[in-house]
From TrEMBL:
GO terms classed as biological process: carbohydrate catabolic process; fungal-type cell wall biogenesis
Region annotated Disordered, chain positions: 392-429
Family: Belongs to the glycosyl hydrolase 76 family.
Residues forming coiled coils: none
Name of the protein in question: Mannan endo-1,6-alpha-mannosidase
C-alpha cells in the first residue's frame, strides 16, 4: 500500500539500530489495525498466483500447498473484506471459490479425488458459508448460491458412506474420502469438528430445520464418548478406525477452535447449559494450551518443525475465537485480552523477506524466517480478530459487479462506506469498557460492538 515505503524505512532504521522492528500496529486503534491488516493481506495475496484459480500455487508433489489451503485463503480474505470493507480482492475471491466448486457444486474437484479429505471439503464449504454470512456477491446466473453449496457439503458428510460403520467409534466421520486412500481409516477429529462447525453455522441460516442442530449435537456426543474431547476439554488429533481406542493426543489449535465456535453457536441458539459447559471449558482450555504467555503458538510443532499445513492453523484459531466472542459475548472477558496480546506479537514478527515486512511463524522471540502463506494468513487473522465483522454488500454498479446483487435476504446492517464505527477496540467485555476507553463516545460504540 501507499504507506508502505515510509513504514519500511522506519523499520530499516529500527533494525539498523537494533530496536525491535516489525509491522507497526496499535491494537487498541481500529484504523491502525485496519492499516496493518491491509499490508499483511497484500503480502498474503502475493503468494497467490492463480495458475489454477482458487489454489495457492504448487500443490504437491510439485509444491508445498495442498488444495485445502486455497479454501483457507478465500475464507481469510472474506473475513478481511468484511472487517475492513476493502473490496479490492472481490473478483479473485469469487473466481477462486467458483473454480474449485466442482461439477456437483460440492467442492469435490475430480483433480483431487484421491487425496481429498472431509476436512478439506469442509474448509472450502466454510469459505462459501462465510461468503453467505458476510453478504458477498452470489455466483449469479444458474449457479447455486454459496449457501446451497455449503449445504451440499454438509449433506454429503452426513451420509453413512462417509462414516465408520462398525466398531466402537461407529458414526464418526472419516478423514480421507476415497476408500483407497491411506487416510480412509483414520478418524480425524478435525473432520468431525469442521462438520459440526458447518452444521452449527448452517442452522443459524435456516432456523426451521431441526435436523442440522441435532446432527451437531450427535457429533459432540460422539466426540466426547469416543474421547476425542476429554473431560478437561483437551481436543485430540484423532484415532484409527474401527475402535478408536488409541487416541493420538497431539493437539492442534484449529481443532479446538472449531469445536469451541460450534459449541458457542449452539449455546447461542439453544441457551442450553450443556453447551455453556462446553463453551466455558473449551474457552479456558484453548487459551491455556494455545496461548502460552498470551501469544498464539501451534504447540504441537512450533518448537520443532511445523509442516506447511500446520502453518495455517493459527489463522483459524483467531478467526474462530473472534466468532465465538460474537455469538457468546460473555466470553470476550477471557478471549479479547489474549487476542490483543497475540495480535501485537504477531505483527512484530513481520520484518522479513525482501520487502522487510513478511511475517514469521513464531511470534515470541526474534523473527524465525519461516515466511509463507500460512504465516501471513495467521497474522492477518490475528489482526482481524480485533475488528468487528460487518456484512459488506455489493454496491450497485460496483466494478466488481457482473454478477447479480448479493443474496442477502437478511437486511443486516451494512457497512459499505462511512458506516458508524468505533475508533478504539474495547479493553475487555462490555462491563469493562470504561477501563481502556476513557472517551465516553468511544465507550458507547464499543458496547455496541461487544453486544453485536
Ligand atoms: C484440473 O486440472 C487441469 C489440468 O491441470 C486444469 O486445467 C484445471 O484447471 C483443474 N481444475 C481445477 C478445478 O483445479
Ligand atoms: C468392521 O468392518 C471391517 C470391514 O468391513 C472389518 O474388517 C472389521 O473387522 C469390522 N470390525 C468390527 C469391530 O466389526
Ligand atoms: C434439513 O437439513 C437436512 C440436513 O442438512 C437436509 O438434508 C434437509 O434437506 C433439510 N430440510 C429442509 C426442508 O431444508
Ligand atoms: C447470539 O448471537 C448474536 C450475534 O450473532 C448476539 O448478538 C447475541 O447477543 C447472542 N445471544 C446470546 C444469548 O448470547
Ligand atoms: C530465510 O529464508 C529464505 C527462504 O525462504 C532464504 O532464502 C534465506 O536465506 C533465509 N534467511 C536466513 C537469514 O536464514
Amino acid at each position: 500500500m501507499a504507506k508502505f515505503s515510509s513504514v519500511s524505512l522506519v523499520q530499516l532504521f529500527l533494525s539498523a539500530t537494533g530496536v525491535l522492528a516489525g509491522l507497526k500496529v496499535d491494537v487498541n486503534d481500529v484504523a491502525s489495525v485496519k492499516k496493518a491488516a491491509a499490508i499483511v493481506a497484500e503480502d498474503l495475496m502475493s503468494f497467490y498466483k492463480g495458475e489454477i484459480p482458487g489454489l495457492l500455487p504448487g500443490p504437491p508433489p510439485a509444491g508445498d500447498y495442498y488444495q485445502w489451503t486455497g479454501g483457507a485463503l478465500w475464507a481469510s480474505m472474506l473475513d478481511y473484506r468484511s472487517r475492513t470493507g476493502d473490496k479490492q480482492y472481490d473478483e479473485k475471491i469469487s473466481e477462486g471459490l467458483l473454480w474449485q466448486r466442482g461439477p456437483n457444486h460440492d467442492f469435490l474437484s475430480p483433480n483431487w479425488t484421491l487425496t481429498t479429505a472431509n476436512d478439506d471439503q469442509a474448509i472450502w464449504a466454510m469459505a462459501a458459508l462465510l461468503a453467505t454470512e458476510t453478504g458477498f456477491t452470489e455466483p449469479g446466473g444458474d449457479d447455486p448460491k454459496w449457501l446451497a453449496i455449503a449445504q451440499n457439503v454438509f449433506d454429503e458428510q452426513s451420509s453413512e458412506s462417509r462414516r465408520v460403520d462398525n466398531g466402537s467409534c461407529a458414526g464418526g466421520l472419516r478423514w480421507q474420502i476415497s476408500p483407497v486412500s491411506n487416510g480412509y481409516n483414520w478418524i480425524a477429529t478435525v473432520a468431525n469438528v469442521a462438520y459440526a462447525n458447518l452444521g452449527a453455522r448452517l442452522s443459524l441460516q435456516d432456523r426451521k430445520n431441526e435436523t442440522r442442530p441435532q446432527l451437531v449435537e450427535d457429533t459432540f456426543d460422539w466426540l466426547e464418548t469416543s474421547k476425542f474431547i476429554d473431560s478437561n476439554f483437551n481436543v485430540y488429533d484423532g484415532a484409527q478406525a474401527f475402535d478408536c481406542d488409541e487416541t493420538n493426543k497431539l493437539q492442534f489449535s484449529y481443532v479446538s477452535a472449531f469445536a469451541l465456535e460450534s459449541a458457542a453457536i449452539m449455546f447461542n441458539s439453544t441457551g442450553e447449559e450443556k453447551w455453556k459447559t462446553l463453551v466455558d471449558g473449551l474457552t479456558k482450555r484453548t487459551i491455556a494450551v494455545f496461548f502460552p504467555d498470551g501469544v498464539a503458538k501451534e504447540v504441537a510443532c512450533e518448537s520443532t518443525e511445523c509442516n506447511t499445513d500446520m502453518t495455517f492453523f493459527k489463522s483459524f484459531l483467531h478467526r474462530s475465537l473472534a466468532s465465538t466472542m460474537k455469538v457468546a459475548p460473555y466470553t470476550a472477558d477471557l478471549i479479547l485480552p489474549v487476542l490483543k496480546t497475540s495480535a501485537a506479537a504477531a505483527a512484530k514478527s513481520c520484518t522479513g523477506g525482501d520487502n522487510e515486512r513478511l511475517c514469521g511463524l513464531t511470534w515470541s522471540g526474534s523473527f524465525d524466517n519461516q515466511t509463507g502463506a500460512g504465516s501471513q494468513m495467521s497474522v492477518l487473522s490475528a489482526l482481524l480478530s480485533l475488528l468487528p465483522a460487518e456484512t459488506v454488500a455489493d454496491s450497485p454498479g460496483s466494478s466488481t459487479g457482473g454478477s447479480e446483487t448479493s443474496s442477502s435476504t437478511t437486511p443486516s446492517p451494512t457497512s459499505t462506506d462511512g458506516s458508524p464505527e468505533s475508533s478504539t477496540i474495547p479493553g475487555n467485555s462490555g462491563s469493562h469498557v470504561g477501563v481502556s476507553s476513557i472517551v465516553l463516545l468511544g465507550g458507547l460504540a464499543l458496547v455496541s460492538f461487544v453486544l453485536n
